[in-house]
From TrEMBL:
It holds the Pfam family MarR_2. It comes from Streptomyces fuscichromogenes. GO terms for molecular function: DNA-binding transcription factor activity. This is HTH marR-type domain-containing protein. It comes from the Bacteria. Residues 1-135 form the HTH marR-type domain. GO terms for biological process: response to stress.
Length: 138
């Protein structure tokens, strides 16, 4: 039996969408829209808006709006980059860290709820496959 990449991509996207939809209420209770959450979750790995835009495949103008909203909500702050005083880097605030962690916990719980439908050995195999696709060590 053959399954093409487009079919797998579509199934994966549908799964991620269903998980995100199931967590919309929790995100809203934290004061986050879905895309704001993704930006917030990316700040530590990519502290500059242009890097966030690249990492999340979002237009820079959209990231600017999300960053502005997250600053206004007190979840992140802008700091002068000591290495280049012309640049600002983004830093999570304590509130931002708390909101990010709670949102990630909600997503993990929903994903785990769905993953519980899969037997443990298949979960191990899924992890191995995903790591292989990302070129990560098994």
């Amino acid at each position: 039996m053959s399954v093409d990449g487009a079919q797998l991509w579509t199934l994966n996207q549908r799964l991620l969408g269903v998980v995100m939809d199931a967590c919309t209420r929790e995100l809203a209770e934290l004061g986050l829209e879905t895309k704001e959450f993704f930006v917030l979750a990316e700040v530590e790995a990519s502290p500059y808006p242009a890097e966030i835009a690249t990492a999340l495949l979002l237009p820079k103008a959209s990231v600017t709006v999300y960053v502005r909203n997250l600053v206004a909500k007190g979840f992140i702050r802008r700091e002068i980059d000591e290495a280049d005083l012309r640049r600002h880097r983004l830093v999570l605030t304590a509130e931002g860290t708390k909101a990010r962690d709670r949102a990630l916990a909600a997503l993990a719980a929903e994903y785990d709820r769905r993953l519980a439908r899969v037997i443990p050995q298949d979960r191990v195999e899924l992890q191995r496959i995903l790591k292989a696709m990302l070129d990560l060590p098994a």
